[in-house]
Amino acid sequence: MKTISNRVLASCVAVLAGLQISALGQTLIHRYSFTSDASDSVGGAHGTPMNGVTFVDGQAVLDNPLGYDSSNPDGKYIDLPDGIMGTRESITFEIWLTPTIGDQWARIIDFGDNTGKYLFLATGNYTIGPEAQGIAPGVSGNWLRSRNTLMDGLENHIVLTINGPNKLAKIYLNGELVEVKYDFTNTPALLGLTTNNYLGRSQWGGDDYLVGMINEFRIYDGALDQLRVKANYLAGPDAAPPTPNVTNIEFRINFPFYVGFSRPVGLYAYAEGLTDPVDISDSPAVTYTVEDPTVLQISSAGIATGLKAGTTKITATYGSLSVSQTVQVLDQSAVLRHRYSFTTDASDSVSGMHGYAFGNVQFVGGQVVLDGSEGTFVDLPPNLIAPTNIPHSAVTFEAWVSLSPQNGAWTRILDFGNTVGGNGSKCIFLSPNTEASGGVCRLAVSDATPGWRAEDQVSAQNLLGQTNVHVVVVYNPNPNRGILALYINGELAGQNRTFKPLDTLNNVYSYLGRSTYTADAYLNGAINEFRIWSGELTPFQVAINSAVGPDAIGPSDPGTLQRVRLVVTTSMIKGAIQNAKVYADFSAVTNVNVTRELGTVYQSSNPLVVTVDTNGVITAVGPGTATVTATYGTMSDSKTITVTVAETRLKHRWSFNETSGDTVADSVGGKHGTLMNGAYFTGTGEAVMNGGYVELPGGLITNCNQVTIETWVTVSSTEMNSSDARLFVFGGSHGQNEIGLTARSGDNNVLVRTFGLPNITVVRGGHIAIDKKVHVVAIFNEAANMVQLYIDGALENYANATFSLASLSNAISRLAGNISGDVFTYCSFDEFRIYEGALTPYQIAVSKAAGPDNPILDPGVPQSVTLKVDKIMMPGMRRLAHVIANYAQVSNVRLRSDMEEVVLSSSNPNVVRVASGGWLEAVAPGTAEINVNVKGRTDTETVMVVEKQVAILHRYSFTEDASDSIGAQDGLLGGAPTISDGKVLLLGDANNKAGGYIELPPGLVSCLDAVTFEMWVDLGVQGNWARVFDFGDHTLGGSQNGISYIFLTRPWAATPTRLVLSDGVASASEVVLDAPFSLEGFVGQVVAVLDPPNNQMRLYTNGALAATGTMNNKRLSGVRDVKCWIGRSLYAADAGLYGSIDEFRIYAGALSPADIAANYAAGPNVVRASLLPVARPILSVKAVGNNIQLAWPEWAGDFTLESTPSLPASTWTVVSGTRITNDSIITITLPITGTQQYYRLRK
Asked: Do 335-548 and 27-242 have the same topology in CATH?
């Protein structure tokens, strides 16, 4: 094959005299300039200003209260006529907007009929810029989101273009292209004529009205190109749309094209008045010709697609301007370099690069069989993926594998790289399981030594227990692609960006079944076929190969499409989720998986019953029936789905109340158990397992697709640290067919696992608290594709995965013993229950409060409820409300407002609104009555919203518990901490990762502009990465790793103290501040300040600055503070904190150095009055004729207006006058006297 060097190709330029070209298919059809009304000067489709919209200086003023949502009918917006979009395939919206940015869902435009049919453009927020979505009735939605944020309080030029024929949508901001989506399929034509066409209002009642001023709004028939967008931006809102005067055009092509892949062709125009050239690749005014159309084709949108390897000349014409260039197309998609079919050995039938078998390798039936024993693997020659062997600088690995359910941790299907000091180095690997017989499937590439320091990763459900599964790894780091992708059975399972060049890997070793990390396990399974391709297989070719199987190479052309088949489960339970599968039959190949990424379009006939997204994920929303249709190419298939509501019932209950004998009675289902191996009853309602276990009957969970296990248990300090131990287990074969829970794995974590269904792991960092009674709930919800773990009422982790409980034999059911009968959990059971169905968070809270002796799921109407809210909030703050409910049979039930049964309302949404998910959101200064309704019982509290200020929000003093004495965000004691003398003692270490910690409610910091953490601590010797606090989120399922967080830690001895903020999924998203002092052995005050407005983070000790650093312009809103922990890490592998905490505080804003020093002097038992949040109304004054008018908010009506002629003043005089209240503002009008006066409000 001919190759080219990776150098810049010369660009070709055509230069002519100035040329004006009319925009083809880009006709201005509506223009609103808002000089004095909402009239349309072009199309006559005049708008209607609603609820007092005013027009000032040629702008429509939408001065809605910040946070005022669209459920309120009196918000200010502009209503445009019905059918204003028509049924166009392509359209452009252009607007000049000066916004006040609040809720990310505030609508700029929203054209539709209801919440099931719309096309909108929203403002976004500080982390997500303008975003658009389109959805037609029953059709999956298309999202387009920009990360370039709007300028708050300044005029922004925003353009949204939709090109239907090319399935292309773009967002431009201030003349620059900021986001593109290439598969945007929803158009005005698909939506049909719409009746609710709003500027500044949403179809959804919970979304905010727009706050800001609109200078100009335009609609075009057709999609504007970037040249027109740029010209309009420079001309401004008051000028008629100009026709750009183009002077020359040029191709900017410094890259080859590739067979099977598409990208913009790269045509740029120079025009008068523009300092830089503009990409006009997709301009309808451009026509393209290709000298050899069998090599390359270019669509009308300027998208070039390689068809076969070769060279050809391409020409672009723009009016009388034209430019040509010769381009090269490489056969990126398919050069098979190596093929190992393992008929009798590891020979390479393509290139002769034969491998060698080591250890107990066997070749059976065209497979290489590996038994997982030490030293059993296949060693292929080195440098198979060296650039000299991979001319495209991109590689695809393809294999068919069968894996035993039982595998050690971090096994490998493939690992190509080097080993340095026992660690993998500069390598790429695919691990089917990151945990022993569980975890997730992990694909990773690294250009570092050791490799784990700089990995780009892709994760998917582990592959254990699967037979002849087709796996494909695509690694294309070339600048025009930058992709790392994993396909499973022909379908994209996950992908990530990577630009680590192939030549930075060091392919000293090429292992199958072995890791370059010497501590990792060897593979227990078989490989049917292994291939290495130079270049990137196309997604379609991957699907074809998967359908053809391992014994033949799939054709590049599968023939004509003959049939499409949609495969779904036609019965679903409300809340359940399933993944549709779509297969296409062609004349040459059948059963080609076209579910994702290959153009399949999904529709639901009734989104109130089921919804379906662009990837075929179906969610059961409500009871009823709906038809789901999948369309691929010219063919479709439909299935009708029925959704029902499932009831949860207690099926079995063992209470261990016996005083003698060995029979354990099931008081509900009659399935009595037997004490074995010396297990015994205490006579006080418990059974002790010191090497013994409880044998329960088989078949307890047979024929169930939703099962909840609930227990109250005390794990003994003599409990063995073993991943083979089980607290409970149901199945037929250890590690191969079972579901169960391990209280203390080999990594000192809690594991909820399924084996053979397939294998699924839910890991909780840290074992169950030792020698303390713990409430444990494990939910196996096949209908919702979810496995969940709750400990003491808190959701610890969960996994989204497809599994079948029908695959479980359940011949054996045991408590405290595994199926093999050789490893036991040392513990005492108080209560053990099995429910048919999935308990809800509300039911778990009720059951936990009722305790082991009182099985209650539905306690009826509460006798009383007590609402707890943060009584003082600041604009932008979001907090959950908390409720203590008392029922006839159970009391002190702790509920949260994110539970479906807890319903909040606000008397004044202009001050505090109830946002989706049960969040209270402070909007503007004032007061609001917050009402809670729990099944008909209510309570009310008053919330005051004050101006933003530096003030304490939450204080935890640990006098008796982890209650919040300032706000309402009480913490829960997790693990086994103790409280004494006003301090909480946490005894964590490298093994006891969650032995003692405090769990605070979510969302405490991400809504703040800046935050200060202050604490008084007495810390002992610490394990690596022990956390003082860690606020953020972690990955799901089998690998609990932090993904977005703020934490303070002692990493290791050489780096004694580190403050970290991450707003992404990789370490590259972190900002780090290292301090010279050591947390290990530290006693005193520690303060961490994160101050985004000043782009600074600081650490203080005992009142003095210890370190300062930049935040790299990151904001707190980028942190997903779902978990807020003191003394525990979001990473399962990190140590727990050892030491005591006297006081822990969270402040809104950045404390000053003087405040920090004063706090240190005052000590942990004193909160200085100057740092308490207080109402500070703003007093304004303006001249009105010969008078002045003073104004302040109505909520501050109990403040007194005073004046003095000079400052400083020894006395202030009360101002008399008539107070007039209008639109929540109090005013007093006073005559101008000619003498100087100062005014203040005092309370």
From this structure: yes
Which residue is it, tokens 């309009």? 232
Helix H segments across 803-874? 841-850
List phi, psi (to 5°) of 453. -70, -20
Between CA 1068 and CA 1124 the distance in angstroms is 22
As a whole number, mean pLDDT of residues 279-303 equals 88
Parallel/antiparallel/unpaired status of strands 872-873 and 937-945: parallel
Looking at residue 334, its pLDDT comes to 66
1217: enclosing H helix or E strand: none
Phi, psi of 1019 (to 5 degrees): -105, 140
Q: Is the pLDDT of residue 167 over 80?
A: no
DSSP labels, 699-752 = -TTTT-SEEEEEEEEEE-TT----TT--SEEEEEETTTEEEEEESS-TTS-EEE
- Does residue 15 surpass a pLDDT of 50? no
> Residue 10: what pLDDT?
26
C-beta of residue 655 within 8 angstroms of C-beta of residue 831: yes
Instruction: Delimit the domains of the chain by residue range.
Output: 13-21+247-330, 27-242, 335-548, 561-644, 649-850, 864-942, 951-1171, 1180-1242
Torsion of CA 104, 107, 109, 115, to 10 degrees: 100
One-letter amino acid identity for 785? N
Give pLDDT, residue 290: 95
Tokens linked to 60: 């429509």
What pLDDT is recorded for position 126?
39
Cα–Cα distances in angstroms (integers) from residue 293 to residues 109, 260, 305, 310, in the given order: 42, 14, 10, 11
Indicate whether 125 pLDDT > 60: no
Q: Is 285 helix (H, G, I), strand (E, B) or coil?
A: coil
Question: Please, is 868 exposed, middle or buried when counting C-beta atoms within 10 Å of its C-beta (0-12, 13-18, 19+)?
Answer: buried
Backbone angles phi and psi of 856, in degrees to 5: -135, 130
Which two three-digit tokens encode residue 1040?
């609990």
pLDDT, tens digit, 9 for 90 and up, residues 41-90: 999 999 999 999 999 989 999 988 877 777 777 889 999 998 898 888 88
Q: CA 367, CA 386: separation in Å to the nearest integer?
A: 26
Q: CATH classification of 649-850 is 3.10.20.70, yes or no? A: no
CATH class of the region 864-942: mainly beta
Q: What is the pLDDT of residues 587-609, one digit of tens each?
A: 999 999 999 888 888 999 998 89
Task: Give me the DSSP letters along 193-243.
Answer: S-SEEEES--SSTTSBPPEEEEEEEEEEES---HHHHHHHHHH-TTSPPP-
DSSP letter assigned to residue 1064:
S
State mean pLDDT over 170-199.
82
Instruction: State whether residue 1067 is helix, strand or coil.
Output: helix
Q: Which CATH architecture has domain 13-21+247-330?
A: Sandwich (2.60)
CA–chain centroid gap for 415, Å, is 29
Classified by CATH at the fold level, domain 335-548 comes out as: Jelly Rolls (2.60.120)
Confidence grade of residue 543 (pLDDT, cut at 50, 70, 90): very high
pLDDT reading at 1126 higher than 50: yes
CATH code 2.60.120.200 for 951-1171: yes
Question: What's the average model confidence in pLDDT over 176-188?
Answer: 76
Q: Is 39 helix (H, G, I), strand (E, B) or coil?
A: coil
Please give the full DSSP string across 504-573, using - where no structure is assigned.
Answer: GS--SEEEES--SSTTSPPPEEEEEEEEEEES---HHHHHHHHHH-TTSPPPS---SEEEEEEE--SEEE
Is the omega angle on the peptide bond into residue 1177 within 30 degrees of 0, that is, cis?
Answer: no
The CATH classification number of 561-644 equals 2.60.40.3440
Enumerate residues 6+ apart whose C-beta is below 8 A from 251: 11, 12, 265, 266, 267, 268, 314, 316, 323, 325
pTM, to two decimals: 0.69
Indicate the DSSP class of residue 392: T
Question: What residues have CB less than 8 Å from 217, skipping those under 6 apart?
Answer: 30, 31, 32, 34, 93, 94, 95, 96, 199
CATH architecture of the domain with range 27-242: Sandwich (2.60)
What's the pLDDT at 273?
78
